[in-house]
Amino acid sequence: MTQLTTKKIVENIPKGSEKKGLLIFLLLIFMCAALILIPSINHNVSVGISAINSQSFKVSTNATQYGTIFDTLKYERSIHILAMLLVGFGFLMTFVRNHGYTSLTATFIVVSIAIPMYVVIKSFGGESFVKSTISIDTLIYAEFAAASLLIAIGAPLGRLKMDQYIIMGLLFIPAYIFNEWLLLDSGMFKGFLDTGGSIVIHAFGAYFGLGVVASTLSKFKNNPVCENTPNSNQFSLLGSMILWIFWPSFTSAIVAPERVVLTAINTIFALCGATLATYIFTKLIRGKIEIEDIANAALAGGVAIGSTCDMTTPGYAMLIGIAAGALSVIGYSIIAPKLEKVIRGTDTCGINNLHGMPGILGGLVAVFITGNVGVQLLAIFINVVIAFVCGRITGLFISLLGKKQETYNDKDEFFVEKLGA
């Protein structure tokens, strides 16, 4: 009788329950590992943070003497960021079947628009606006603007003609510069924390792109849907891995020299947390691994850690990464279809899931460090509103240029001898 009862119980256990229990257990293990690295628990981490703080005064008093060395080190990170922009973002967007030429060429073009346009605009204006043209800092800020623009074009990717990407870039950069000045330089949001650009770079680009989608993509209701292949997905994974590798240079590009190592370590731990959470949650929600989640949500930790990248510690950074990875997977699997109904269009690259929501998460986490709840929340709200409204206006201009005839396809604008399978 006991054996029969046991057999029934085993038969009634849902398939995969044992694996889900293991995944949840692994998640708890990773979170515990992060907690162990919090200064109040780990003496070594606490000592390391104290050493960094004690070095700040010594470094600042010798800033003039070591200025050239610091600029040289920043130059190296600026080249890493360029690798992210062209190779990382470029190949990440090649997941669309038969659209690789367009994705890579659009990446080349918008980066080539964003960097010089940013530098030119910032060469004029008042004291709190102008930036030196021959400056490594200005170059890095221009690369940040290019990154935000690449995020934005991910939303309508595959449904714009090449000249429409150009118009989008030309209209995006002035909007980005205005938002950057308003939140970071105008003095109206003193205490707002966003060192690595979770809000100003990632969230702004995401909601600008969604604004463009909301204004233009009703024209594409009856067009072919976005498709991918194993080959295109592998190229996308290559882009994701390149972004993963160089992300620490992105977040540490403009931080104080004594905080570069801390920032890099925090970023890596956040990326590790997001990658592990992505694996766990994609299996929990979908039952199997969705490669789109791995290629995208694994990067969400780098997005979310941006705001506090030089102010937190590895343990907290890993927790932020775990939360961001989980949120991103939920976005791709559950939220994305609902969002498409709201904006009446398709977010091709899922930029809301990778850059929008994790970016806002990073901005919200900063509240616990700054304590400036009102300022932080207002800045986030203003950022999203400016981005979406400017995106909608840009979408209206783009609509005047007609529509792409072969959506998600290279052949209407490129010489293509043989399309990939």
From TrEMBL:
This is Rh family protein/ammonium transporter. The keyword Transmembrane applies. It is found in: Membrane. PANTHER family: AMMONIUM TRANSPORTER, RH50, ISOFORM D. Pfam families: Ammonium_transp (PF00909). It is a multi-pass membrane protein. InterPro entries: Ammonium/urea_transptr, NH4_transpt_AmtB-like_dom, RhesusRHD. Residues 78-402 form the Ammonium transporter AmtB-like domain. One of its GO terms (cellular component) is plasma membrane. It comes from Clostridium scatologenes. The chain crosses the membrane at residues 21-41, 78-96, 103-121, 133-153, 165-184, 196-214, 235-255, 261-282, 319-339, 351-371, 377-401. One of its GO terms (molecular function) is ammonium channel activity. The lineage of its organism: Bacteria, Bacillati, Bacillota, Clostridia, Eubacteriales. Keywords: Membrane, Transmembrane, Transmembrane helix. One of its GO terms (biological process) is ammonium homeostasis.
